[in-house]
TrEMBL record:
UniProt cross-references to PANTHER family, sorted A to Z: BLL6696 PROTEIN (PTHR43610), N-ACETYLTRANSFERASE DOMAIN-CONTAINING PROTEIN (PTHR43610:SF1)
The protein, known as: N-acetyltransferase domain-containing protein
PROSITE patterns recorded: GNAT
Pfam families for this protein: Acetyltransf_3
InterPro entries to which the protein is assigned, alphabetical: Acyl_CoA_acyltransferase (IPR016181), GNAT_dom (IPR000182)
Coiled-coil region: none
Natural source organism: Flavobacterium urocaniciphilum
Length: 171
């Protein structure tokens, strides 16, 4: 599975992330409310966001999300933790501009990624901060099932793990 294909539908295009995208994405990420429920709620700070951004660049699996209608960058997302033995991949490190919350855009992004991933894997994993109820609700709407809670040692924050199986996916 290639972790950075260009994907698109009638609402969004996912384009491989590059170092040149930092300022454009930081403009969105600098909104404190984007991170309000996230375990690292200070990601709106430039130096904190930069650490995340470089981590995603180093993964070679991140995307900027472009609104097809306006050609504006509206957020970012990633594939990560590809496990070819278990035939699984994770989707996450996603954020979207607040003006797109409650619209079909997030679901459209996830549909693109899930439909692509299920050509290669049988399971998709989502790691979400335990108190990030917006994200939890969004993956539950996709049909993902809550598996477990884990303490992520890097942040010392509790995350929950959701799993979406290919057999249960209805796009």
């Amino acid at each position: 599975m290639h972790l950075q294909p260009t994907l698109s539908n009638d609402l969004v295009q996912l384009v491989p992330l590059s170092e040149n995208d930092f300022e454009e994405l930081y403009h969105i990420a600098s909104d404190e409310l984007v991170w309000e429920q996230h375990p690292e709620s200070d990601r709106y700070k430039k130096e904190i966001f930069y650490k995340l951004f470089i981590k995603i660049i180093d993964f070679h699996s991140g995307f900027k999300i472009i609104d097809i209608k306006t050609n504006n960058v509206i957020g970012k997302t990633s594939f990560y933790d590809l496990n070819e033995t278990d035939k699984s991949v994770a989707i996450g490190y996603t954020f979207i501009d607040r003006k797109y919350w409650g619209t079909p855009y997030n679901r459209s992004v996830k549909n693109l990624m899930i439909n692509y991933a299920f050509k290669f894997v049988d399971t998709i994993i989502f790691h979400i901060g335990e108190s990030n109820f917006r994200s939890r609700k969004a993956v539950e709407k996709l049909g993902a099932i809550l598996l477990d809670k884990v303490l992520i040692s890097e942040t010392q924050k509790t995350h929950v793990i959701y799993k979406l199986d290919k057999n249960n996916w209805i796009s």
